[in-house]
Amino acid sequence: MLVLITYDVNTATEAGRKRLRKVAKVCTNFGQRVQNSVFECVMDAAKTTEVKALLENIIDKEKDSLRFYYLGNNYRGKVEHIGVKESFDMEGTLII
Question: What angle do CA 69, 82, 20 make, to 5 degrees?
Answer without folding.
Answer: 45
